[in-house]
Specification:
Blueprint (H helix, E strand, L loop, with lengths): L20 H8 L3 E5 L2 E4 L1 H20 L3 E2 L5 E2 L1 H7 L11 E4 L5 E4 L4 H8 L11 E10 L14 E11 L2 H21 L6 E7 L6 E8 L5 E6 L4 E4 L5 H7 L6 E16 L1 H6 L2 E3 L5 E3 L1 E7 L1 H12 L16 E6 L4 H16 L4 E4 L5 H11 L3 E6 H6 L2 E5 L5 E4 L1 H8 L4
Parallel strand pairs: 3-7, 9-12, 17-18, 17-19
Antiparallel strand pairs: 1-2, 4-6, 5-6, 7-8, 8-16, 9-10, 10-13, 11-12, 11-13, 13-16, 14-15, 19-20, 20-21
Helix pairs in contact: 1-8, 2-5, 2-8
The structure holds one RNA strand.
RNA sequence: CGGGCCGUCGUAUACCGGUAGUACGCUUGCUUUGGGAGCAAGAUGACCCAGUUCGAUUCUGGGCGGCCCGACCA
């Protein structure tokens, strides 16, 4: 797309009320806009990144058999009362409101209850299991303190998946598959190396839950990482007993700040029993469905990626989630030939299926380069009188800064898959 | 939820109990053109409500909003 038509603009300075690096850079780049504390709007560039992250997650969930749905944000208190999670003393993040009639409703902060109730209509036999269901849906959580930009907000989209199994053994195989799918997601969005599966409190339903924690100074959590075994233990359960249970030695663990980028739980029959989600087994007996839940917030993931990968000049997007792969920077200074060359290259690249942001603005080189660094697209291709004279384009990789001089065909060859 | 700090053009900042200044951005013109240009001319601002005062953006109180530390965080 032509940058001159993009309605968002970059800013030289970050707003004073944002301290978190992810919020500062994303706001300066025009990716997001803060609506209020803990609530951010996604602007064109930010939405493109968000959608790409969402799509990667979607592909990985589909790969293990997930079926996508969308549940409502408006929640009927009845199902929550059945599980004891309607009371605000028990769950302090509820946003509650009323219908015009005075009937109380809640804004969903998670969806075990409504989905479990819904599945009663569709699961009645062992033949109906196992199943995976997931959604990308807006959650509302009345956090006492929103903070750290996209890392902790009051309104956010979450991919929440739920598994339904016949037995704990079957559940365990589903759970392991989900773990692998999650690893795939972190790897594909560029933070695989810094993300560790982490043992955390299992709550009332099982001994442990698993978190995916990404090592980062901006993190709210403290984890103890075993580099040798590539796993971690959340500080909340870091005891001698747990270490022994997991076969870990205190001396092999190092402390680090981490961001929780995913969390998966075994739910057992906590919800199926409370809401009556049962199935008829082969022997005719009535049994409870064994459930699991699996969450990732694409927005928090986006914030984490900015925290982990950006440098002092701006954002550094991995190719898989960059809003565009190529930043075509035209330094024309009114030279018509440069403009023509840029237009031609833009046509060729987009024709080859490469996403290009074309900086066709009437601005000086310094400003364009600074903006380009800030926006952080993976490859900057400069077209100018210089490159015209040289007969090749200057291509600079945002990550690492490597510069190459390539012809149009070499560039297209590089950017498109070979058949 | 406890504690602290803060609220001034679009953004970032300054000063002041008596005409609110600067930088970037924006508009117009000229020059400039490979790392956030220069000159000239413009437009745009005190969160809300009360109180003190001849006069409040400034002082006091309350409200609303924001950030930070802590607590909390299926």
């Amino acid at each position: 797309m032509r940058q001159s038509l993009l309605f968002t603009k970059t800013r030289r300075e970050a707003p004073k009320d944002e301290v978190a690096k992810n919020a500062q850079l994303l706001i300066r780049g025009g990716y997001i806009h803060k609506e209020m504390a803990g609530a951010y709007n996604y602007l064109p560039l930010g939405l493109r990144v968000f959608k790409k992250i969402e799509q990667i997650i979607r592909e990985e969930m589909n790969a293990i058999g997930g079926q996508e749905i969308t549940l409502t944000a408006l929640q009927d208190p009845a199902v929550w009362k059945a599980t004891g999670r309607w009371d605000s003393a028990t769950v302090d993040v509820w946003f509650k409101t009323q219908l015009a009639s005075g009937t109380e409703v809640g804004l969903g902060w998670t969806h075990e209850e409504p989905l479990t109730a819904l599945m009663r209509e569709h699961i009645s036999s062992y033949k109906d299991l196992p199943r995976w269901v997931y959604q990308f849906q807006t959650k509302f959580r009345n956090e006492a303190r929103a903070k750290s930009g996209l890392l902790r907000t009051r309104e956010f989209v979450m991919k929440d998946m739920y598994s339904f199994a016949r037995t704990t053994e079957e559940h365990d195989t589903l759970y392991e598959k989900a773990k692998q799918a999650y690893f795939n997601v972190y790897k594909r969005v560029g933070i695989g190396e810094k993300t560790y599966i982490t043992f955390a409190s299992g709550g009332a339903f099982s001994k442990y839950s698993h978190e995916f924690q990404t090592e980062c100074e901006a993190g709210e959590d403290i984890s103890y990482i075993s580099d040798g075994k590539r796993l971690a233990v959340n500080k909340e359960v870091y005891t001698d007993e747990v270490l022994q249970d997991l076969g870990l030695e205190k001396g092999d663990m190092r402390e680090a700040k981490t961001i929780e980028v995913g969390n998966i739980f075994s739910l057992g029959t906590r919800f199926s029993d409370a809401l009556g989600l049962n199935y008829r087994a082969e022997d005719g007996s009535e049994k409870s469905v064994i459930m699991g839940c699996y969450g990732i917030g694409p927005g928090r993931l986006m914030g984490t990626i900015v925290e982990v990968l950006s440098d002092d000049k701006g954002i550094v997007w991995p190719e898989s989630i960059a809003p565009f792969r190529v930043h075509l920077v035209e330094l024309g200074n009114g030279n018509e030939d440069v403009g023509k060359e840029a237009a031609e290259l833009y046509r060729e690249l987009t024709g080859a299926g490469v996403e290009v942001l074309w900086d066709d603005r009437d601005a000086r080189a310094g400003e364009k380069f600074a903006d380009s660094d800030l926006l952080g697209l993976p490859l900057r291709v400069v077209v100018s009188e210089k490159t015209l004279a040289a007969g090749s384009f200057e291509c600079v990789h945002r990550a690492g800064g490597k510069t190459e001089h390539l012809s149009a065909s070499e560039l297209i060859n590089r950017l498109t898959p070979h058949v």
